[in-house]
Design brief:
Length: about 250
């Protein structure tokens, strides 16, 4: 492979390598207490061991499962409702305050309310994550429809196309790029809220539980290892939706 073709493929590695170098420099120079910040090698060693012996599998699976259910609920509700509201500006304006109010409210502040409604079960964690994600998805889907290119809409209307086909073939398709932005943001938000809920709501499994449990027993290496897994999971989910967007919304920006 030519160097000119290899260079772009290596660009994504620059950030992680720079982070590891900075991390190692901080440890070597003792900018932070070494007890509180173990070396990258020690942390990665614990991470690879937990993956190899399968001790992290149950926690990883629990977090992925809760995130998936929360995101699926949010997408099933948020996309159709957002498209419906976006196709009628008066309808959207009538609920705009409520959408922006709850979208601006930190979902973690609502944890006590959801605990009263759902108790300490998994339903609690899934419900609050779905609530946070659905607002982001709904908002982006609605704006995707409302901001569809007017020239294309007017062009097909001038051809005598029915309103249903204008909506289905123009408005809906034009809204997909913005909808995918909402979906990508929504899945990230689902993961964040699930992790927070696992940390602060009664839970026996999950990466959030693993992080807070390691912190409480002062197993700092295991705590950082779990944080790295959480970050990697978020990156993989975001990358998956980015690839889906490139595959199904290839006309975006054209």
């Amino acid at each position: 492979m030519r160097a000119s073709n290899l260079a772009p493929r290596l660009l994504p590695l620059i950030g992680p390598l720079a982070l590891l170098a900075l991390w190692q420099a901080a440890v070597s120079a003792k900018w932070v207490n070494p007890v509180l910040l173990p070396s990258p090698a020690a942390t990665l060693g614990v991470l690879f061991t937990s993956v190899a012996d399968g001790s992290i599998n149950a926690d990883l699976l629990a977090t992925v499962s809760r995130t998936f259910y929360a995101f699926a609920i949010a997408a099933v509700i948020g996309v159709p409702l957002g498209v419906a509201l976006g196709s009628s500006v008066p309808a959207y304006r009538s609920v705009e305050f409520l959408i922006d109010f709850f979208r601006s409210t930190p979902s973690s502040a609502l944890i006590p309310l959801f605990m009263l409604l759902f108790g300490l079960s998994d339903a609690n964690k899934i419900a609050i994550a779905a609530f946070a994600a659905v607002l982001l998805i709904l908002f982006n889907s609605a704006y995707g429809v409302m901001n569809a290119r007017k020239t294309r809409v007017l062009a097909v209307q001038a051809m005598g196309v029915s309103k249903w086909h204008v909506f289905k073939d123009v408005l809906l398709m034009e809204s997909l790029p913005q909808t995918f932005v909402g979906l990508r943001t929504g899945v990230s938000m689902s993961l964040v809220i699930v992790i927070v809920a696992e940390m602060f709501i009664g839970s026996d499994t999950g990466l959030g539980h693993r992080i807070i449990d390691a912190q409480q027993v002062f197993n700092i290496r295991a705590m950082y290892a779990a944080i790295l897994v959480t970050g990697a999971l978020g990156y993989v989910l975001n990358l998956a939706f980015f690839m889906l967007e490139k595959r199904f919304v290839h006309w975006s920006g054209k």
